Amino acid sequence: MVTPPESLVVPVRVKPGAARARVGGRYDGPYGSALVIAVNAPPVDGRATEAARRALAAALGVRPAQVALRSGAASRDKLFEVSGTADPADLAGRLDALRETS
Question: Which of 48, 55, 62, 77 fits a 20 to 30 Å CA distance from 8?
């Protein structure tokens, strides 16, 4: 898979069924250093994945339509692609800051 230059691939670890939804923290998973996203939605029929996609978009300040699942539909470890961004370096900085929060 080729990633366009205005895109950013984000490894994510989803924690479904959390008591409190939040974005932040680091998890060393199969895709490297992943951003942790806890969602209230259960891991049923893609609801947790959709909630994680929307939470990631909100945390990065982009529209949900700009965030697409690239792999990991049935796994807690996912790759999302954020596309159509004016400044991928700025998004990378935001991601690093989110990974450092716990």
Answer: 48
Amino acid at site 64: P
Determine whether 34 is exposed, middle or buried from the number of CB atoms within 10 Å of its CB (0-12, 13-18, 19+).
buried
Q: Which helix (H) or strand (E) holds 80?
A: strand 77-82
**Residue 51: its H or E element:** helix 47-60
What domains are there in the chain, each with its CATH number? Answer: 8-100 (3.30.1200.10)
For residue 75, what are its two tokens? 């796994």
Spatial separation of the C-alpha atoms in residues 81 and 78, rounded to whole Å:
10
- Asked if 70 and 81 count as a contact pair (C-beta separation under 8 A), the reply is yes
Report the alpha-carbon distance of residue 67 to residue 57 in Å, rounded: 6
Model pTM? 0.91
Residue with tokens 């924690």: 15
Is residue 67 within 8 Å of residue 3, measured between CB atoms? no
